[in-house]
Design brief:
The chain is α/β, with parallel strands linked by helices. The chain contains one helix and 16 strands.
């Protein structure tokens, strides 16, 4: 007769991890003189398996931790990935500033990391933010990144920005104008909705996809200029 391992697992209790090993025990059916030897062998096996499982889990955890890291640098917080950084919001110091200039790169340890994107909701409802400058290193801005920034009046976009996503500047009621760079290929749903102070905007030739209700709620928007060669021949009002 033998004991069979049915299952192994790692379980967390608070900040500690334990290895759980489920064994089907056949000892009740064995002769008495064999039970002591089997019990000792089983104990050694369980300890060895527990060590292997916990070591493997520690290696996986270390690997996951090295995949990304959250840091605060200057006025902003970032998520650091291999070879690039994403802006995730304002740091403690940045919360007290009205004007923010996003750097093109930051230092992580001794390494210079390029800032390539702004996370979704990164500046959502930052009502004190009046000005934002986005460097050319940034190619992506997430959904609703500046949604609800009611005091935001000045925006300088990256010349390498690929998309303006859904609700990016929705509710920026102090924004009077914005220049969309020639690199932008699409503008998402409600990207500028409820920008009630926006009076004019130019959509460049590079834009090939327009979402729905881009300018809904822009009550003072009177001039939307569209490049004649990009296929959008009719005026855009909402």
């Amino acid at each position: 007769m033998k004991s069979f391992i049915l299952n192994t697992d790692i379980r967390r209790f608070g900040n500690d991890y334990i290895a759980v090993i489920e064994i089907f025990n056949c000892e009740p059916f064995m002769p008495e003189h064999s039970k002591s030897l089997i019990t000792k062998r089983k104990a050694v096996l369980m300890v060895a398996l527990a060590a292997v499982l916990l070591s493997s889990y520690a290696l996986m955890s270390d690997s996951a931790d090295q995949t990304s890291a959250e840091i605060s640098f200057g006025d902003l917080t970032y998520e650091i990935y291999p070879g690039e950084a994403t802006v995730t919001g304002l740091s403690y110091e940045g919360q007290y500033k009205n004007s923010i200039v996003i750097p093109s790169s930051i230092f992580y340890g001794d390494t210079s990391i390029p800032v390539t994107s702004i996370d979704e909701y990164a500046f959502e409802d930052c009502s004190s933010l009046t000005s934002i400058t986005i460097p050319d290193s940034v190619t992506l801005i997430g959904n609703s990144a500046f949604s609800g920034c009611s005091s935001l009046a000045s925006v300088t976009l990256s010349d390498n920005l690929s998309y303006i996503r859904e609700y990016t500047f929705s509710g920026c009621s102090s924004l009077t104008s914005i220049t969309i760079p020639d690199s932008v290929a699409s503008i998402g749903n409600r990207a500028f909705s409820d920008c009630s102070s926006l009076t004019s905007i130019t959509i460049p030739y590079s834009v090939s996809v327009l979402g729905n209700n881009i300018f809904v709620g822009c009550t003072n928007l009177t001039d939307v200029s569209v490049h004649p060669d990009n296929g959008f021949s009719s005026p855009i009002t909402g």
